[in-house]
Amino acid sequence: MDLVLVPLHKYPEYLQKCCDLINSEWKRSNTARLRSLEASSDKLPTSLILLKGDILLGHVKLSPLPSVPNSCFVESVVIDNSERGKGYGSLLMAKTEDYCRKTMNISVIYLSTKGQEGFYCKLGYIECMPVSLYGEFKGIRQNDFSISKQTIKPVIAKNVPAPPPMPVNNIKVTIKTYMKKDL
């Protein structure tokens, strides 16, 4: 049976199954998840689903990167838990890259991951600097303020106790690794 990667918005009958699949990995309200999936279109953002016949195997979301022309940010890469370890994740990414290159004229794919760096390295992704999904940070210039330094008076707090010490706990902090691949 052939495996196909198709845009979710052209197969709305898979919306709820796709919602359930993503929520099995990353919990979110059904309503919020469905709204996000319903935003899929021929332009970014686009949700793609991997089908084997009429069985939903996986999902990937492509989001725009306003600060990087001809690129996208890959989110929510997930394969059904019962189908993992069969090469479907690699296939999903390969078909996603083909879709980006051929259908959307995208030349660079970015993503972030926590713990799957080895998987993406095998697929040709390399570590890179973080990218923003929200456009470019322009910074603040001195003349963006209408007040001068002379009008600002320092405030010195008196009789204020020191802040309490930070709690000691066993919370595991995982840092996202940003990766990219030129297509």
UniProtKB/TrEMBL annotation:
<dbReference type="GO" id="GO:0008080">
    <property type="term" value="F:N-acetyltransferase activity"/>
</dbReference>
<dbReference type="GO" id="GO:0005737">
    <property type="term" value="C:cytoplasm"/>
</dbReference>
<dbReference type="InterPro" id="IPR000182">
    <property type="entry name" value="GNAT_dom"/>
</dbReference>
<dbReference type="InterPro" id="IPR016181">
    <property type="entry name" value="Acyl_CoA_acyltransferase"/>
</dbReference>
<dbReference type="GO" id="GO:1905502">
    <property type="term" value="F:acetyl-CoA binding"/>
</dbReference>
<protein>
    <recommendedName>
        <fullName>N-acetyltransferase domain-containing protein</fullName>
    </recommendedName>
</protein>
<feature type="domain" description="N-acetyltransferase">
    <location>
        <begin position="6"/>
        <end position="152"/>
    </location>
</feature>
<dbReference type="InterPro" id="IPR039840">
    <property type="entry name" value="NAA80"/>
</dbReference>
<dbReference type="Pfam" id="PF00583">
    <property type="entry name" value="Acetyltransf_1"/>
</dbReference>
